Records
---
Amino acid sequence: MKTELLGMGMYIAGEWITKEETIPVLNPQDNSFITSVPAASAEDMLFAIEKAKEGAKIAAAMPVHQRISILNKAANYINENKEEYAITIAEEGSKTILQARAEVKRCIQTLQISAEEARRIQGETIPFDQREGSENRVGYYYRFPIGIIAAITPFNDPLNLVAHKVGPAIASGNAIIVKPATATPLSALLLAKAFEAAGLPPKVFSVITGHGGEIGDILITHPDIRMVSFTGGLETGENIAHKAGLKKISMELGSNSPVIVLKDADFEDAVESTVSGAFYAAGQNCLGVQRVYIERDIYDEFCSSFVARTENYQVGDKMLETTDMGPMISEKEAIRVETWVNEAVSKGAKILTGGKRQGAYYSPTVLVDVPEDCTIAQQEVFGPVVLLYAVDDFASAIEKSNAVNYGLQAGIFTRDIERAFEAIEKLNVGGIMINDSSDYRIDGMPFGGVKGSGLGREGVKFAIQEMTEPKVVNFKLNYKRTV
């Protein structure tokens, strides 16, 4: 796998392009060298955009059956080489091999759903005669592709989150340029390889590797880019929104996800689900459980069980199938999490378990008594740390859940249907999981949040809506419609 990727280059308009200046791709587990990728220049990005202008015309002209065929062939190619894809995800990122295999499976499904949704990009007839004087008019609207889409993707799901932008773009007849995370570019390049094998016309799809400071602003500000689809942090998202100009923007900017556990909950299920939701992929998950609000009657028992389950979590070599959690994406990120935890402790928080760092590894950590003004209580930790709080009543749990500038998803555990529906109404989030943690998603559902969690929705069908525009067609008839 490493030999094959070495020297592959970046993928621009159907060509694999190498550069003298490169960026090393390292395994965060031990900082070992995997391979290197080109460090694109501003000129490379401008070249890619020029080619994508031609690609947008090609993509728009592709009949729907061709788009469907290409998407399904790409999905089949990945399925035939799924272990190579899984190993790549695990080696360059933070996921264990089992988690990486699950991501590959989801990527295949994302592309298959994209193929299915390509045939469902439909419009509607419009009754123009609803307006007096328009009795001799008939018409409809249909959806057309917007042109070139810029996709900027994160490290934590380096294959499937790219597919969530590329699949809908191709299904809807657009060209797309992907700038993957600098730390995890290989999975995106392998996705390009799948589409190349599937027969996607050149110039429709590019993957450009490089430093955001060198090529990012060109991609997001260029007037020929008609949409920016970004997944990443709030600060970067706000910066992109200020710079992008007059174009469509879709952003998923993370969260600080709450889960409410009421005393009538299925106790064991609530513990298991919230532990998994907190520490999956070393907590580097936009849906990860960060705050748990537990009714006081069961708080002590819940904390005890939660800690016991956390201490059974297997941390170690991410390539072993027995490992539950590997390293964070870098030692720098692990140090940041360590700093946030230490700040909380200095203000009175207590560590029930964890709180230890070794290189890029940060142990699964459970905090209690965390003051609400701490960084870790207000911001997205994006690491393996969870905060447990006791609450006196349901209303307090709702209020505290909403008391941050994020609103991606939330969870609630209860057997009371009335409480469940009240939470649905009052939690200010984009998705609510009943009797599950916040960390649940399927690739066909609308996905996104409110407040600082972003703009717009992903999920294939809903991304296609973002990537197309309605065009109205009206016929003025020369004869009078009579009975």
---
Amino acid sequence: MTEEVHGEEGHSPVAEAPPRPIPLEFEAHYITHQEAYHEYALFYLRTNDAAERAVHRVFLEILRHWDALLTESDLQQQTWAIMRRTVIAEALLNFRNQLTAMDTGNGLYTALGSLSPRQFDVIVLRYIAKYDAKHIGWYMGITPSTVDYHCRKARERLSPIWHRASNKEITK
């Protein structure tokens, strides 16, 4: 049966079918907003390559949800929220990767880097960005009580390391 779908020279016409056409409205949205999205991403991510990757992911996400987004009364706000969440997630991932490369001698940065993605994000957003559980929940798409749960579990995992670090400071 698979032999029947191959065209000349063994190429599959199904694999070579053109992708679904991009809606004209989406193309206009891209042209209108790409530069601002790139500047925003560049500010947070600090390198052109990282900004381009993030903005590319943003527009793929917007395109994936385009039909639903068109039904929203606040298309600009909805697409900006997608852009912002994507850039922040990329910045958190970069920060996480930098942490694991740092060595303080007490293992704290390595331990932070080994937290689950949700626990890591909650710890960074709560203790570094100083967001409350409601704001973190909105960003991550979870309830404030789930934010508190992930924060509590992360602190439990980090607790032995914090205690070791505190004891080192006390004995000095």
